[in-house]
Structure formats: C-alpha cells, structure tokens
Amino acid sequence: MDIWVEDQPLCSRFNRLYMLESEQNCKVRDRWNNGGWVWKWRRDVRGGIEQSQLNSLLILLANVELQNGQDKARWTLDDQGIFSVAGTRSHIDEMRLLDQDFVTRWCPFVPRKVNIFVWRVMLDRLPTLYNLSRRGLEIEAISCPCCGTGMETISHVLFTCNLAKEVWSKIVRWCQVHMPEVGSFAEWVSWCTQVPNVNNS
C-alpha cells in the first residue's frame, strides 16, 4: 500500500490485481524470491483488464532493483537521493521564479527603493489583490478599486487602469515623448530601449 514505485500505490494503479492478492498486507520482499516475482492470487488471472494490468505491472517492475537491507527514504529531487535545504531551495526557485528575457540592471541614479520596486514588478511580486488571492488570502473581490474594469494585477495597476493611463499621459507630455499604449512591464521596457534621449537645450 506504500508508495515505492513512481508516485502512487500499486494497489490503486492495479486495483483489479490487488483484489486478487491473497495477502493484501504483504511486504514487497514477500513477493520477491531468487531474482523473480512470486504472486499469490486467489485465483488465476483472467484475460481482459486483469491480464492488461498484470502486463503493465511486469513492465513497470522490470527496471526495479531490490537490495538487501532496511528501507530508507530517498530524496527524489537530488541525484544522490540526499535531502538538503540548499537543493530544495534551488528546486523551488526553478519552479516559481519567472524566466525573464532581459537582465536586471540596478540604476545608480535613482533611489534604492525604486530599483527594488522595479525588480519586484519584473518578478510579479507586488501584493496586488490578484496576487494575494492567488496565494490563498481570502479576498472579497480582486477587481481594481480605482476603475473596477479589470482584475488588480501588476499590469493593470501600472499600465491598463484608467488612472494609470492618465498618469502616463502626463509623464510623456512632460518628457516630450510619444509612448504607445502598453499592456505589460515587458512591453514598457521594450519601448524604453527605443526612446531617444530628449534634448532640452
């Protein structure tokens, strides 16, 4: 009944064979003898789904190597089977952190908190209503409280909300540049790399 091959108990995956097993609480070693599997069925395996499950079971167990000794836990996220905090953290980072098409660069001409804010925007780590609800917090509504026309995501708060568009229109007018309508941080960065320097002389 334990999980010892792949990611689910064999009694669940091969339920028809499990019903035929005469000793359902037996151990793995009870069915292994002299390099081969020994089954104890209540009756012979019939054709159809029972034979199909038996064939699949034998294929699955063909690559299993049993060794003498006590059972021990093996950490499957490590090639050596050994648990480590650093390895687990690395695996979590690979699963959760977003891949970016550009390198984070810290600008020395703005306050550090601005650099940190932009970095958190890039990783989608700002506490918007959408992000909070996605992390399990009970939120009554995730719509934007300013305009009510969309979910309060980072892209909406910074670019597509009516209030954000109004702020951007004032900024580009003051900077004397033309900014097309952008809908995400990546689009904004792409536009910034193409904007020529403004000559105020």
UniProtKB/TrEMBL annotation:
Keyword Transferase assigned: yes
**Domain Reverse transcriptase zinc-binding: where?**
99-168
State the source organism's domain of life.
Eukaryota
Return one GO MF term.
RNA-directed DNA polymerase activity
Q: Name one Pfam family in it.
A: zf-RVT
Q: Which UniProt keywords apply?
A: Nucleotidyltransferase, RNA-directed DNA polymerase, Transferase
Q: What is this protein called?
A: RNA-directed DNA polymerase, eukaryota
State the organism named in the record: Artemisia annua
